[in-house]
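Example 3.
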Amino acid sequence: MSDSGPVGFRVASDKPFLIGLGVLGGSYLLIIVAMVLADLVFLNYADQPLLGNEMVKQGRHVDSGVTVATEKGRRYFFRAGKNETGLRSSGGAMFGTGLFTATDDEVTLLAVESGRPVTASLRPEVRLSGIAVTNNVATLTTDEPHGLLWGEFIRVSDADAAGWDGVREIADTTLHQISFALDSDGAQAVSLGLSKPNPLVQALRSRDIRFSIKLSLISCTLTTLFSLWVAVPIGYVMSRFQFRGKAVIDTLLDIPIVLPPLVVGLSLLILFRYMPEWLSDFVVYKWPAVVLAQFMVACAFAVRTMRVTFDQIPQRFEQVALTLGCNRRQAFWRVIMPQAKGGLLAAGTLAWARALGEFGPILVFAGATRQKTEVLPTSAFLELQAGRTEGMLAVSLIMIAAAAVVFIVARTLGMKRIFA
Amino acid sequence: MIRLENIMLRQGDFELRDIQLELAAGEYGVLMGRSGCGKTTLLEAVCGLRTVAAGRIILGDRDVTALPPAERGVGYVPQDRALFPTQPVREQLAFALVLRSLGQSEIAARVEELAELLGLGALLDRLPDKLSGGEAQRVALGRALAHRPSVLCLDEPLSALDEELHDEMCQLLERIHSETGVTVLHITHSPSEAKRLAGCHYRLANGRIESDE
């Protein structure tokens, strides 16, 4: 045993460590992907039938279930709740959710258990009982209350007559009537199909949301430009120069990041009470307030990014440029900025994405006035407040799409730089 | 000519004082010393990248102590070469010339000349990350020589090269020196390098410069 090497020392396997890394990182990635996918899957992209009022009365199930009166030959939309297994009529049984045609004068909701509260929903499909056209305005009369509001959209389809098909904005409503503008007069129709377009179409057609998309895109772009304009010099100074009070300035620059966003908005609002009147009239509760609120937060992130970018570029480059005949300005533009392009792109993307999602400060400082200071997060909030989860989701999808486009563009440009 | 008179340099706790050095025009001077003794700091002071606390720096017949680096007429090759990562070799060689607003043809001719001298002909359109250590070193030399400086400051130019390249580069430095007649201040910690290249040896130790002929 004289030639044995070092024995008795064994190093533990790397597997648990690597698995740990994978599990922790992987679970987070999974949540990110699942989160976005859930949004995409949850939204019902199909058109919804136009439905009348709820027919199921509140109460409890007795024995076999609750019966609801129906009209023979009419179509109904049934959704089973958590206390029902389905529905039975003389024509057979139905489980789950969907449309069916009544074959009898009543249907029975099948209870999971007697005594539980009724949770199912049964609504009649709205049928047209009259079509009138006057002065390019069509007025449809329905046999059941249609539940649509002014400003909402309805999809009209007609196989026979031209001039009717399309998504129409409702110009006027009563309980049983819907009016909307037609392109040409004299269009006649005998029967029309009516349905509610999916929330995404509704959102994209809505004038309010169109405005908020426009305002969001413009304000985010302005915010990004302003942020970069400020972040490049601040980042450069903080990275290259040593001076008294630098630590204080460093802390000040972080304030917008650590401060709760709402407080940023409130602070701006209070600050503008001390401003000259013409200035606060121009800014507060107007679109400039949106840009300023976004800028205050987004810029802080851009400054961080630019500072790190400049920190990673050694000072040697400037020094060599100086000996070759540059002054500081020339060294900055000729040698440093070309190297900072990637960081500039990253800072711009970050600022844009931050600005797109900014909500709290805008709500406080710019308000949530439709067609005036409404940006996409405000739209989502207003939709939610109005009880339209689907509308909120549609607005969220628009924001996801906008963020994704900017991100992909930035990444592609970044890649080009690397592969050039 | 390089003349340093009573130079004092301060950087935090580190201090060099009463530094004297004289290198005649066209000489090849090697400044030696251990790591951390202040060689690089002194070289930066000569280039104007560091302000001196006291003393005078004279290059040629000019007192350059108060001049910005751009106006001193020095070529500087830092230890890490610091080639501009976004510029192809041709642009790096032309960098100093473009700043001096030379004409297109003049710049092209000078770049051609430098490429000839340093053997960079085939590399002119490459980016620095596609260059080997020796090639990058030659580009850095070319960039520093482009504007015909009277003084060339080299900060350990051979330290990152392997044996074979080392020898090649020594020959190149000798050739550059004899062909251009530039005054060279070369810092290193390798005695063999110093022996091979130098006309004049200086040693920086304990905050003083000793000249050993």
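Strands of chain B lie at 2-11, 14-23, 28-32, 54-59, 62-63, 74-77, 151-155, 183-188, 200-205, 208-211. The first helix of chain B runs from residue 39 to 47.
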